[in-house]
Amino acid sequence: MPCSDIFTTYQFLFVPACSVLNHLNSSPFTQSPKDPSSFLSPMNHSTHISLLPALLLLLPLLSSSHPATTTCYTSVFSFGDSLADTGNLLRYLGKKNIDVGRLPYGETYFRRPTGRFCDGRLVVDFIAQAMGLPLLPPYLARRSGHGFRQGANFAVAGATAIENGFFMEKGLHVPWSNNSLGIQIEWFRQLLPSLCSSDSDCNVMFQNSLFLVGEIGGNDYNYPFLQARALDEVISYVPPVMDAISSAITALIELGARTLVVPGNFPIGCNSAYLTVFHSNRSEDYDAFGCIKWLNKFSRYHNNQLRVVLKRIRQRNPHATVIYADYYSAAMSMFRSPQLSGFRSSPLPACCGGGGPYNFNSFLQCGNPGSNVCADPSSYVTWDGMHMTEAAYRKIATGLLEGPNAVPPILNTCPRTKQKTSRPHYVLLDDDILDG
């Protein structure tokens, strides 16, 4: 695709990327805003159905020898962007106004679109089910009578860590209203009085709740990258992103949160959309797995900075358990050895899209008339060019629940039991779970 023809979107954003490509030829990674040497130094990748009969459906979940509902967290609260959104943006915009409101989104598990940017469940869904909990209802469904005592999802597709005003001042377009991480934390504050009625009641609830803070920050970089901003400008956004994430985690801990999982960013250099937009004829721009090296290096930089922030938060709050979720390594294991993970040998093309080498076309995206969808999403890592398949998210969730992509593994932090290695357990699902 000629540079002059390249336009892309993060589901709703169309901008030229040519000047970014031109900038790369003259401005490689040179420095970070705070510590130039930390960005240039070598980085270790590891740091970072017909309709389902609801009352008969059995899913393998992870638990100890006792039922999951009696051995682990009794509620889960999630914050973030489209990687965790279970329907907030869909409720905000309406099904007719967004691709994710149409099939094939949701086709694998729900058999209908639910607002998830996936063919089925997300990481947060698998974590909730591993706890024996219903799938988290989106916060914006509160007018529909959903109860939130067992958890709520505040994540909104397109959300940023930094407030929208930051981007507006820089002339960047951020779609929809301000649903940034700080706004999501405020939503939780507003919901809290309905979750617990006294200090002791709230203390018990917080001790038995798991908080997922992210993934968040990806859009803070997607918007400038895909609006043709220079690499060094995007690098300069990392410190304020870290500040926003740190502030959100600290606010939750001050409210009473005791166990928080904070994911890093995925390797965007293996992302079908980025591979299309930043296509290069230079073989040295790609690693052995076909991913763009400089983009993955940027992702690792974000993740390394996040790990530093989390270390500081742990030091200030020894009573809280703050877990770094290594999304980068979990994803790279699938891109490096897809067949060992149960995927097709070519893991980079998207299952659903508008054609091209990576099946991503910014003018013909998944969910639009004329787009194509693969026959077996479970054999694909990438779903629509920007998001992963249910099968990939299942792998990632397992790595967080059991390790090695979370230290300690989530299941080892359960407040009621410090569990040893768990074995599969089957839980009968009900209509509430299917309706998530």
From TrEMBL:
Q: Which UniProt keywords apply?
A: Glycoprotein, Hydrolase, Signal
What SUPFAM superfamilies does the database record attribute to this sequence?
SGNH hydrolase
List the Gene Ontology MF annotations in alphabetical order: hydrolase activity, acting on ester bonds
Q: What is this protein called?
A: GDSL esterase/lipase At1g31550
* Pfam families the UniProt entry points to: Lipase_GDSL
Mind telling me which InterPro entries this protein's record contains? GDSL, SGNH_hydro_sf, SGNH_plant_lipase-like
Which gene produces this protein? Answer: LOC105038530
CDD domains for the chain: SGNH_plant_lipase_like
- Which family does the UniProt entry place this protein in? Belongs to the 'GDSL' lipolytic enzyme family.
